[in-house]
Design brief:
By secondary structure, the chain is mainly beta. The protein is 0% helix and 43% strand. It has a three-stranded antiparallel sheet, with no helix packed on it. A two-stranded antiparallel ribbon has the order 1-2. The protein is globular and about 40 Å long.
Length: 79
């Protein structure tokens, strides 16, 4: 999700627990950016990279993603 601060807010669900990470950097205004969010189940590492810069990384206890039939949300909630 893109926050009002222009930071990326990523969430994953692992074993019914929501894990969350917010990027340290913000997306620039008025130009294209590339960002990626990674989650490694075997290590619990979650990472956000923006335009190839220094990634924001947090390590949680290892765990597999919880499956869902919900729609994938990219952006913010409707309304």
């Amino acid at each position: 999700m893109l926050e009002q601060s222009r930071q990326i807010h990523a969430r994953v669900n692992v074993g019914g627990e929501q894990r969350s990470l917010v990027s340290a950097g913000a997306l620039p205004v008025g130009e294209w950016s590339r960002f990626a969010v990674h989650y490694t189940a075997s290590t619990g590492e979650m990472k956000i990279e923006i335009d190839g810069g220094t990634p924001t990384i947090e390590t949680f206890p290892p765990g597999q993603l919880t499956g869902t039939t919900d729609a994938l949300l990219i952006g913010g909630p409707a309304g």
